[in-house]
Give the backbone structure.
Amino acid sequence: MQLSNSNYMKKNVLCFLTMAITFGATAQEVVQWRYDRTGNYPEKGLLNAWGEDGPQLLWHYDGLGEGHSSVAVSVAGKLYVTGMTDGKGWIYAFSPDGKLLNKKEYGDEWSKSYNGTRGTVTPDKDKLYFISGMGEVFCLKENDLSLVWKKSFMNDFGGENITWGICESPLIVEDKVIVSPGRSNNIVALNKNTGEVVWTCEGEGDLSAYCSPIYIADLPVPQIVTHMQKYIVGIEAATGKKLWSYEHVNQHGVHPNVALYADNQLFITSGYGKGSVMLQLKDGGKSVEKLWEEPQLDSRIGATVKIGDYIYGSGDKNRFWFCLDWKTGEIKYKDNTLGTGDVIAADGKLYCYSERGELALVNVNPEKFDLVSRFPVTLGTDQHWAHPVIYQGVLYLHHGNTLMAYKVK
């Protein structure tokens, strides 16, 4: 059948709109803890340098209360962050231009030391998942922040809280939410829609250690890896069977840094003088062996990034910024030009957020700490601990009471 020009044009327009909607939906990114837990953001065309006062501050919101959580972004493009006021935790929803869309109190929060919220929200489709410093796991509907289900590490799984409160971002693997209550129910998988237990793993029976788990899909046995108080553990994702464990202990049982994985190798770093270790996954992921150790890179809470064959991050007792060779552990440089802190990466640059309150732009360069720009973060309250987030050319920074948005593109 031959179409008239009018019908032909209508058909083409309809086809174009359908394609645009389809590609727009699939292109929308979700930002969880450290983007996808690696700290590497896919943004391109970002600024190569900042002015003396830093990039342009687009907007800021004061009134979050106390907290150290990072920003998360849902598939709908909404920003989520948490804070504590008068001992109660609140979740806040913002549009990218800074409009407060919704907020909701969810219960008691951590107010015993370094007060405030901790773990970052994990968005998934039309739901939001997060864990309070008191060890309660929440699933909320995104559209109105109403409660779908919640579980308690202590009451439901026999877990114990830890010195500075539970600090973990839930991991979504297919239809499961992975969390780490500790003790006999070391790692637990819950049905993400109902909160019902899918499996539990006893692991080594030690406590949670402020760490968020990762999922390794490219092994013959896909697995969950996380760091508990004394052991790094690998768990079969489908069944909860413990595959391996590796003892890695520091002074306080504090291991907040998410593991880095590539090509059957697993990098872990811990503070309080413990340092870093590289493990080789063997037997299809059923066992591990140590490849190398480097005690000087002992990141406490700032995490690390892998770019090419190099690892970038900063130390704790060893107060330097480091670059290590991924394959050998060789120190390529150590530099104390900037105070130590958090690191993320995008578009050939490191974004380093010092605990002293400076945000710096550093060229990715394994030969030297190639500082380009730096400026002081003067808004907000308390510790400079929340990790920066980059989304659609904007850098979001949570500093205690304040959420800031900087134009970096």
